[in-house]
User: Which sequence fits this backbone?
């Protein structure tokens, strides 16, 4: 009996010790995650900012695509409220206008810089990395101050963002402190003295404000970018962002001139047409000085292997073989697609890329090809350029899969995509999310 009592007391002691240790660990973690609030300020007068700084801030906001995420459909620019679907639930973007109650009107420049570089709000709350501070942390303070000046000179809009809808326990913001320890790497983008000033400017923009890796780099289960696979391709808003390294699937290597044209107009006759989340990016880049876009293109093209040096290979068109293998797809293509994409179609003379040049058909992942058929393609710049209607309401998942299988077999020399109906069904579901 004495031995049993001693054993029970010993177990109780160990349980108590473990509970106390766990509680101490939780308290330490909370203490480490704590960030102080920054005192509010009276909204600064728009006239307190230098006009040149505001103009520069406007350009930098375009380079960062700020309005794309911080403007809901039908809403006022930069007033937030746009739903951002993530694997962890739906986040709603914040109001960036200088409204003192629902926006950033009481934020100082120091508070704004902290949010952009450390992901911490003026109140001290950790911000979710839907704000890509993984990249904004590399932006120079002078540029952040110019962005702040631009935002603070906008018309205030009183509009609070809806509450986020996240899976438990991710609504507990102190957890983000641990996420940042793993995935936030502060510091300026290093200058490469062996490269040109244009290339280094492009590196600064792409790695920082442009946050291109946010879409074009795969992410791990925790939502952090896999740095060892930088620019190897990723997923953005249900679309596939293709690789921007040597694995880029384009039929013809990108040149700097071709990429500049694409980034400013949304179309490259020798490559692709911008679609999905890339459309708003092109719209923004069409409004900034061309020199900035040329710098971006110089940097990205260097990652993809530079300009082509080999002769251009003939483009494939295995029409007969593809029709035998995918007869349903061939029939559907003839009825729904050939009027624009078939040989000799009048639309092909209006800058529309040949399907044998379409990057989405050559990619190892059929997601964007499925989304393009489901949702269609709209010209991103002032309604200029080729259009394509969506077929989500006209074709079933199985029919779209048949068309995609036929297109892949006819216009590329790459292996068949696997499980196409399931991919199309997933793309349809993600395209319907807010």
Assistant:
């Amino acid at each position: 009996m004495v031995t049993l009592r001693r054993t029970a007391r010993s177990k109780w002691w160990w349980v108590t010790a473990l509970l106390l240790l766990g509680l101490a660990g939780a308290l330490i973690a909370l203490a480490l995650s704590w960030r102080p609030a920054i005192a509010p300020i009276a909204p600064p007068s728009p006239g307190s900012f230098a006009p040149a700084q505001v103009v520069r801030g406007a350009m930098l906001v375009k380079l960062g695509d700020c309005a794309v995420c911080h403007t809901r459909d039908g809403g006022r620019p930069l007033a937030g409220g746009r739903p951002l679907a993530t694997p962890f639930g739906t986040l709603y973007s914040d109001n960036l206008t200088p409204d003192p109650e629902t926006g950033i009107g009481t934020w100082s420049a120091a508070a704004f810089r902290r949010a952009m570089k450390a992901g911490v709000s003026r109140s001290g709350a950790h911000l979710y990395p839907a704000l890509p501070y993984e990249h904004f942390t590399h932006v120079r303070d002078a540029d952040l101050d110019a962005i702040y000046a631009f935002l603070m000179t906008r018309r205030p809009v009183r509009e609070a963002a809806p509450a986020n809808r996240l899976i438990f326990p991710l609504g507990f913001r102190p957890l983000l402190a641990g996420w940042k320890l793993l995935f936030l790497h502060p510091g300026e983008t290093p200058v490469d003295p062996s490269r040109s000033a244009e290339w280094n400017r492009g590196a600064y923009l792409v790695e920082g404000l442009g946050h291109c890796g946010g879409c074009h780099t795969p992410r791990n289960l925790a939502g952090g970018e896999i740095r060892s696979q930088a620019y190897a391709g990723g997923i953005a808003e249900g679309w596939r962002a293709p690789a921007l390294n040597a694995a880029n699937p384009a039929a013809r290597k990108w040149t700097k001139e071709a990429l500049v044209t694409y980034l400013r107009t949304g179309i490259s006759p020798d490559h692709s047409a911008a679609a999905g989340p890339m459309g708003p990016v092109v719209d923004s880049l069409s409004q900034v000085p061309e020199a900035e876009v040329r710098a971006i293109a110089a940097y990205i093209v260097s990652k993809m292997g530079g300009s082509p040096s080999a002769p251009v290979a003939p483009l494939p068109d295995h029409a007969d073989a593809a029709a035998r293998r995918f007869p349903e797809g061939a029939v559907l293509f003839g009825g729904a697609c050939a009027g624009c994409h078939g040989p000799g179609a009048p639309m092909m003379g209006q800058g529309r890329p040949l399907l044998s040049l379409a990057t989405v058909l050559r990619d190892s992942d059929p997601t964007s090809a499925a989304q393009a058929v489901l949702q269609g393609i709209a010209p991103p710049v002032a309604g200029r350029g080729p259009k394509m209607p969506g077929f989500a309401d006209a074709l079933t998942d199985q029919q779209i899969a048949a068309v995609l299988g036929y297109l892949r077999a006819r216009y590329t020399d790459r292996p068949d995509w696997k499980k196409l109906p399931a991919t199309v069904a997933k793309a349809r579901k993600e395209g319907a999310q807010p």
User: Anything to note?
Assistant: Residues 20-30 have pLDDT under 50 and may be disordered.
